[in-house]
């Protein structure tokens, strides 16, 4: 059978085929070959598939997307069996410890990336989850560069973490333009197997030493891609900075950060969906539209880094575009009631509510030998038994950060008097119900 694509001016829609016949011992249902900026099915392969006897029936979901820098024309499908190998990591200092885990799952490509740095500077730790769409190159770019840009902003030098991370988010789109941006994306781009069409590559995160690398001022470069306007693929970005008792959370997209305060889950970020009133108003004011929950019929997020095709209005500032990388910033004063935070992509949140995840972590955090082992349990818990249901079939990435307490260290009697009454948590004014979850 021949599979066709429905295509908007911006990107191909996600298509779904309920049954597909395949030949025995073939890696894909039909051989795929790159043709220009898309993947095409060979007519010879189609005719051979039609004449052959049917051996199996699969549910196959796929999407074709175009993204410059060597990631164009990729077909994303579900594997016949999930890839459950995990990339996990643990770390600790005198203030906190963390564990993380990533798993490709049912998807034929891994488009998540993450960063976990205990030593952004001597007083600050940085954690981030980046969920790519249309390819993982933008997610990898953010994991490599976003924390560096935070560190080298004027706001960071002045002690304003919120303003620093806000500037760094918008800076990502700026850096991915032009010859230098094209060159860096090309270097980070995934290799596509010409015979299977499947993206090859490993889960990726920066090394701890990357935070202290010499700062790159990203000077303008002349070249054949000097007019490159940026990638048409993109990524969510959910980042948490911890400095002493201050927690700063920035978010663009539908990855999420949650804090457990005495066992109660509070959302520290908001999922950016086109249906939200403020998001819808911005999209429509910029000349965009929402179709079936998708921005311009294309993307089911209203904020993301990358996706430059939706940010082309030269008369609007970055925060007013149809799609924006402008993050929500949430600053929280930590207290001894705060147990841990979780940053995770929607592959987790589609399967568990914030409170369900907090409850699950609290059930296992004292019995597992490491925090990464707790994360691995969560990933296994969320993995679907098959691709029939939809949920539990996405890439999954999760970072668990546990605080060492007490936060306030009393050095002398005068400090003790000053801290009296300050060790407890402030009230969570304006906490809103969001399904079974609360928002700070």
From TrEMBL:
The UniProt record lists the keyword Lyase: no
GO MF term list: protein serine/threonine phosphatase activity
Pfam families: PP2C
Keyword Hydrolase found: yes
Domain PPM-type phosphatase: 97-403
Recorded catalytic activity of this chain's protein: O-phospho-L-threonyl-[protein] + H2O = L-threonyl-[protein] + phosphate; O-phospho-L-seryl-[protein] + H2O = L-seryl-[protein] + phosphate
EC number: 3.1.3.16
Record keywords, A-Z: Hydrolase, Protein phosphatase
Region (Disordered): 418-440
CDD domains: PP2Cc
InterPro entries found in the cross-reference section: PP2C, PPM-type-like_dom_sf, PPM-type_phosphatase-like_dom
Basic and acidic residues compositional bias, start-end: 429-440
Extent of the signal sequence: none
Name of this protein: protein-serine/threonine phosphatase
Organism: Zea mays (Maize)
């Amino acid at each position: 059978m021949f599979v066709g694509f429905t295509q908007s001016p911006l990107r191909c829609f996600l298509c779904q085929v309920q049954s597909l016949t395949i030949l025995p011992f073939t890696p894909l249902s039909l051989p795929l070959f790159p043709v220009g900026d898309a993947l095409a099915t060979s007519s010879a392969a189609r005719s051979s598939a039609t004449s052959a006897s049917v051996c199996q029936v699969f549910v196959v979901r796929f999407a074709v997307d175009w993204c410059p820098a060597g990631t164009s024309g990729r077909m994303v499908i579900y594997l016949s069996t999930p890839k459950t190998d995990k990339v996990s990591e643990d770390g600790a200092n005198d203030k906190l410890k963390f564990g993380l885990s990533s798993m490709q799952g049912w998807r034929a490509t891994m488009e998540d990336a993450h960063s976990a740095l205990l030593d952004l500077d001597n007083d600050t730790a940085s954690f981030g989850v980046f969920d790519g769409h249309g390819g993982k190159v933008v997610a990898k770019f953010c994991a490599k560069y976003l924390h560096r840009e935070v560190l080298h902003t004027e706001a960071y030098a002045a002690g304003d973490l919120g303003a620093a991370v806000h500037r760094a988010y918008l800076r990502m789109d700026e850096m991915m333009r032009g010859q230098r941006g094209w060159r860096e994306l090309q270097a980070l781009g995934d290799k596509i197997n010409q015979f299977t069409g499947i993206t090859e590559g490993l889960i990726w995160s920066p090394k701890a030493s990357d935070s202290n690398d010499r700062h790159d001022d990203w000077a303008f470069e002349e070249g054949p891609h000097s007019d490159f306007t940026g990638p048409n693929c993109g990524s969510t970005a959910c980042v948490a900075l911890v400095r002493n008792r201050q927690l700063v959370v920035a978010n663009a997209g539908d990855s999420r950060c949650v804090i457990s305060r005495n066992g109660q889950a509070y959302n520290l970020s908001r999922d950016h969906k086109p249906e939200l009133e403020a998001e819808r108003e911005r999209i429509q004011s910029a000349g965009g539209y929402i179709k079936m929950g998708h921005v311009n019929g294309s993307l089911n997020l209203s904020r993301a880094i990358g996706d430059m095709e939706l940010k082309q209005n030269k008369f609007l500032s970055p925060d007013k575009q149809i799609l924006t990388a402008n993050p929500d910033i949430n600053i929280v004063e930590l207290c001894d009631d705060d147990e841990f935070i979780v940053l995770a992509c929607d592959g987790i949140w589609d399967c568990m509510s914030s409170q369900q995840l907090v409850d699950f972590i609290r059930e296992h955090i004292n019995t597992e030998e490491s925090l990464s082992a707790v994360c691995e349990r969560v990933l296994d818990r969320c993995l679907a038994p098959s691709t029939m249901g939809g949920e539990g079939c996405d890439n999954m990435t999760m970072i668990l950060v546990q605080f060492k307490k007490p936060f306030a260290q009393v050095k002398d009697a005068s400090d003790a008097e000053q801290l009296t009454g300050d060790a407890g948590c402030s009230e969570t004014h304006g906490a809103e119900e969001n399904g079974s979850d609360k928002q700070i």
